Amino acid sequence: MYTMIPFNRTLLNRPNSLFDDRFFRSFFNMNDCLAGQGFRVDIRENENDYVLEAELPGLSRDAIDLSVENNTLTVSADYNSEKKDERNYYSERRTGHVQRSFSLDGIREDAISASYRDGILYVTLPKAQPDKPAGARKIAIEGANASGSDTEAEPTQA
Fold first, then answer.
1. pTM above the 0.90 mark?
2. Which end of the chain has fewer CB within 10 Å, C or N?
3. Which domains does the chain have, with CATH numbers?
4. Secondary structure of the chain in the HEC alphabet?
């Protein structure tokens, strides 16, 4: 579950550092959400999957790029608000590129699906089924039987 927490490449994420712990990453590096450079996400866990909900208001579906590479899901988008009135003194409309990446450990990459409505991108991430433990099996013991004679012929040496 903790692998679903998004990661960012910053100076705080040095190897062998307390800040490298996945639990603390989001607490110490909130600049991507709060400084207007990123977007907010929620991740819910269901019985068979996770659902990632990303806030991407004001975008068309075509402006959002969703890709999987090297066991990493990347969500990126380009905001491009055109200025229609050059007399604007001040504008808070967004223009630029936003991107976040998520580890896909424990996820069936081939079954990921997504939809976009009302400014929210919904990405369904099906959980990978754990490998079933091997059942008990009987192992034959080779060699002499209880009477001391071999039941099978000895292998010949070449």
1. no
2. C
3. 2-126 (2.60.40.790)
4. CHHHCCECCCCCCCCCCHHHCHHHHHHHCCHHHHCCCCCCEEEEECCCEEEEEEECCCCCHHHEEEEEECCEEEEEEEEECCCCCCCCCCCCCCEEEEEEEEECCCECHHHCEEEEECCEEEEEEEECCCCCCCCCCCCCCCCECCCCCECCCCCCCC
